[in-house]
# Entry
Amino acid sequence: MRRSVAPFALMLLAVGLAMSPGLVDSAQAQPISRQDLPPELRPWVPWVLDEVTGLGCPKVQGQPVCVWPGRLRLDLGRSGGTFTLRVTADRESDLLLPGDAQRWPLEVRVDGRAMPVFDKGGAARLRIPAGRHLVTGRFVWSRLPESLRVPAAIGLVDLRLDGRLVARHRLGLALVR
# Structure
């Protein structure tokens, strides 16, 4: 009779352990630090993370946000203008810049270093590393445009026209998403 009770008791024990909430939670997979990865896999980490764009970034309304633009300063005039933007990136990310195909940002710099700007979906973008940065650039045109595209994520804009601060501007700035 002992032989028939033992398998039944083992089955009850296994079901009981599987249903125990403390054990199930502790059995979940945990992230691996880069130092614990085999050396052969470490060079692949940036490539893999590039495909998981929101990893490590807080979520706002269910969407990961990795780039936090600060105040945008626009100094615009009849023949062109400049912009200055402080930004914080939680990880290497793309940053939308002011401007568009007709008013393309030129001589863009991040912390004083020249950086390439690329077009994605008709908007000027820049790849920035993780950290706090100062992004600068300029525009050239033959006459002051009626509007200038500004990314919707930028909420604070200081606008100067021909050297004068425009205190209450009706944002003739088109917001880009």
